[in-house]
Amino acid sequence: MSKKYHVTTTVNGDEYEYLCEPQQTLLDVLRDELMLTGTKEGCATGDCGACTVMVDGTMICSCLMLAVEGDGKKIETIEGMAKGDDLHPLQRNFLELNGLQCGICTPGILIAAKALLERNPDPSETEVRYWLAGNLCRCTGYDKIIRSVLAAAKEMRGA
Amino acid sequence: MSTILDKSGFNPDKKLKIVGTSPVKHDGIDKVTGRAKFGADLFLPGMLVGKILRSPHPHANIRAIDTAAAEALPGVKAVVTRADFPECPKGSAAGDMSRNAMAREKALYDGHPVAAVAATSESIAKQALKLIKIDYEVLPHVIDPVDAMKPDAPILHDHVRTKGVKDAADKKTNVVERLELKMGDVEAGFAQADVIVEHEYDTKPMHQGYIEPQGCVATCTEDGQVELWCCTQGPWVFRDRLTEILKIESSKIRVTQSELGGGFGGKTGFYAEPIAVLLAKKAKRPVKIVLTRGEVFRGTGPVSGTRSRIKMGVTRDGNITAADAELIFQTGAFTGSMFFNAPQAMFTRYDLKNVKTVSYEVVSNRPKVNSFRAPCVPQVVFGVEGVVNELAQKIGMDPLDLRIKNAITEGYKTIYGETFGPIGYLETLIAAKNCDHYKSPVPKGQGRGIATGFWFNRGGETTGTLNIATDGSVTIILGTTDVAGSRISISMMAAEELGIPVDKVRAVMADTHALGWNRVTAGSRTTYSSGMVIIDSARKAITELCRRAALIWGVPEEGVVFEDGYCRPASSNVGEFPPLSLAEIAGKTTLTLGAIAGHSEMNVTGAGPGFGVHIVDVEVDQELGRVDIKRYTVVEDAGKAIHRLQVEGQYQGGAVQGIGWALNEEYVYGEDGRLQNPSFLDYRMPVASDVPMIDTEIVEVPNPRHPYGLRGVGEVPVTPTMAAIANAIGAVIGVRPRSLPMSPPKILKLIEEARAAR
Amino acid sequence: MNSLRYEAPSSLGDAIALLARASGTSRILAGGTDVIVQMETDVIEPELVVDIKRIPELRQIAVENGAFRVGAAVTGMELTDHRAFCEAWPGVVDGVKLIGSMQIKGRATMGGNLCNASPAADSVPALIAAGAIARIAGPNGTRDVAVEDIPTGPGKTSLAKGEIIVSFLFPPRPARSGDAYLRMTPRTEMDIAVVGVGVNIVLDAGGVCTAARVSLGAVAPTALLVKEAGAALLGSRFDAPALDRLAQAAGAACRPIDDKRGTKEYRVNVAGVLAKRAALVAVERARQNPTGRSI
């Protein structure tokens, strides 16, 4: 068995320490060591986006980052999106406009959409679609997802 | 055992307060915060990681298995092989299920499980798999069902003899069944026709594509109690099947359903679960198995690929007189494709008296097929709706008008013997004809296609309970897995019955110890059947509420009525009593006989069939063969949309699955019989930038057998999709494709052939 | 995965030493979008993974004598957010954008895309068309190599043991120059290119082509620099006959295979179509660049 690496990292503002084998990915460790199961594994090859998280402000697939690389990083997952009882406008709009059915892709999509709106508060429908092209959904056909994102963007702009 | 409410109480004029609105679904909060627990999200103390070893050969005898080195590896706590599975006779349902879960005599597909381990870490489990030695005798394989039907094809199962063939010679075969379904006289029918169109079609197998791979955690105590946590479309069905193949008593097995990350029929049967149970039994520790995406593609149920020949005839003034079809379905390594759905459904929109269909189910060296939405139907509707459009073209009739002229209505007797009650096909066609999309001109350079679809919608064995708490709030106990949001719709119906806000109702998804039997969530049956059963439970609870009110007031039971959430005196003769709410009555239960609840078991019937019309505009890049979906509208009859946004979501999701199936999704096998594209990279499902908004129009022709008139909506929306897109492509390039998927190289070839022909 | 070691050196010298010394299989880890996938699917079982993201030279976008030098481990996102680079080399950015999703671009790098040496890599044809030069550092010193000379076959490069690509040097951008990259995929995103074409051209004041480089991806064991295709454009005004000659030359250069992503016939067909389209995009960009890009 490989030697384990000791990592100190910040997730959703809280400091965490974990031990990991070198081939474990950040996704493996978030779920299996830190019990933050909101981030999902759909494929483990970067093709579905269900494992999307933010690392130092950049949106990535956590299945494509080694856990050992997490040392000293600032990680944000779906568990950190709501603030207490206050849901993020994206979360609220997804609920109101039924932007989810089974919900398995939802955490990845919410993280991705949040990253988009932080860069571009007024995206067009096409821009939203291309930004979310890395997040597969099999239930909704994407329609209500896009509408929920656009509605949240409008709300956040105060429009 | 009742099958339906004696009096549904359906009243089209009743003013509904909750049904028909779109409240936020109660399970939504957990899903937008990541709290909801799916199959892979359970952790138990001492839990081990289970991993499965799979055959790399599509067809091989398994001569010997040596697990000694794996068992000796430190950290390995259990190893399971075919020796651990009880004997189940070859060719029986249990025998097939057991052998699909783990190969016994033979490996029958690339990816077939042959052994499994449970270890203290994933890396040790993976290492242990490498130490297992399997002695394979590789056999010739066959993938394509037409090849599998040839006389010299490699035979998968020695015991298979074709069902439905008189005097089937005692000859080994891969053809499991020949099914003939007919009515009237097709020869006479074709003789009446002025125009006949006949074509051959083929479709490739595809996968349900749920984003959540199967995940489960099994435990087994020293005295044989099994607990299984898993994502499933049918906890009771899983339990019963575990009983059948592992020979463990059902009352010793508790199956608890996790949230389901997509199923679409693909999770109506188990895969790793029996293996996890056996590993847990041996290790005496919980065992978690989560399939990788590669395993999902290699080892779980694809959707049948087909070959079909379809022929239909029409008179010059637009009467469709006859229809004839020969269909071949692949079922993978074991029977179970539900191919009989196809001949039953494929023409069931047209007022036909003369139909003949012959269908074959064929095994080949692929994973056993599992259901998808409308199993085996979209593949053949792909052809039917192309033939009908061509008939329309040839007699100079608008394609919708031809369908309107031949539309079935209430009273039609189908080829499978059911006589329809009120149905909404005609209304759906007319709504499609009048919708904005259809009325707007086809944009320059684009082509428009329409197609119609049908699904039976099922009922089935369903159980549920409704409990009223002492504060008047309500919990409903459901057994039908919520795949997309049925639990809110059912909660809405309970709230409507009880006259309380929907927020006072909470649904609980039961495990198999806590509720009676429920059939799988499939067939678009859930909202209809669980709705029926919960409404029945609510009405029983209401009867009980009235009894208690009567007791409280000291009046006869007939003197109490229930209205809008309150028990009232039936008339002023009964007495002047202020109305009593649920809370007021339930709060006195200790004085008045105890808990107030309702319970119902039904083998639900009376589900009304659904019909849909899809309209699509496409653009084709004629130098690259690439198809772009520009505009899409789904018009479908929901009977009554209980939760409007949910119903729209079903239409949209089904349409986009159909778009993927139409344009790019297929399994690719090499000469070696191994799957070449077991990943989302090369199994190409639509991404957000591939599709436009999907417009929807909900038609409501109620099914009066249901208290709120609803019809299932989950499966109809995928049935006409590929046909509509193919019809649209045909309108652009002049040739209507007859092979799925309609990927760019194939479209480019058709364009070049059309050009050469001119 | 037995005895895998992870190292994250902060100097180029340390990285080279680690790789040169390694006894078994080793891999450089930049974004990991290929390496981690290959590890997860058991295609490779390295004993050493050297994470190069802490080495400053590999992570910078710098200007050298009026031209860009881009670190090999700059991510796709960082590159596409660099406004000046996007203005100078929109074709290279087209290619980088198509490497994968937004999530992939948050990690993927041109160095990794090139060294993974998939024949279909999206950034490579544009790099070749641009005339980019790779600076390679290794145990025997530093050398500069044209990008087209790096891939030698599917999954293989001309790098020696211990060598790392440090950066890519792009030529200065003269007046009326423009580049473009187009590819054919069945879906709009997320696919591996069935055919990829990079075109880089320079026009004179009269609109005549004075320089042209055309590169094809996914139609041969490596990405190709197709000299005949460039020659077909030289001296032309990108009229129909010139574009036809371009398409012919592109098709003729293909040595494609049949695989799950496309057939030979389809690839040859499409190479010509895309070459024409890419050339026209490059021309349009050249016309909008009358004075060149000084940086």
Describe this structure in words.
The complex is a heterotrimer of chains A (about 160), B (about 750) and C (about 300). The mean pLDDT of chain A is about 95. Chain A has about 160 residues and is α+β, with helices and mostly antiparallel strands. Chain A has two domains: about 5-80, Ubiquitin-like (UB roll) (Roll); about 90-155, [2Fe-2S]-binding domain (DNA polymerase, domain 1, Orthogonal Bundle). In chain A, a hairpin with a 2-residue loop joins strand 3 (about 50-55) and strand 4. Chain A has helices at about 25-30, 90-95, 105-120, 125-130, 145-155; strands at about 5-10, 15-20, 50-55, 60, 75. The mean pLDDT of chain B is about 95. Chain B is α+β, with helices and mostly antiparallel strands. Chain B folds into three domains: about 5-35 and about 460-605, Aldehyde Oxidoreductase, domain 4, CATH 3.30.365; about 40-140 and about 210-300, Aldehyde oxidase/xanthine dehydrogenase, a/b hammerhead (Aldehyde Oxidoreductase, domain 3, Alpha-Beta Complex); about 395-455 and about 610-755, Aldehyde oxidase/xanthine dehydrogenase, molybdopterin binding domain (Aldehyde Oxidoreductase, domain 4, 2-Layer Sandwich), CATH 3.30.365.10. Chain B contains 20 helices and 28 strands. Helices cover about 25% and strands about 25% of the residues of chain B. Chain C is globular and about 60 Å long.
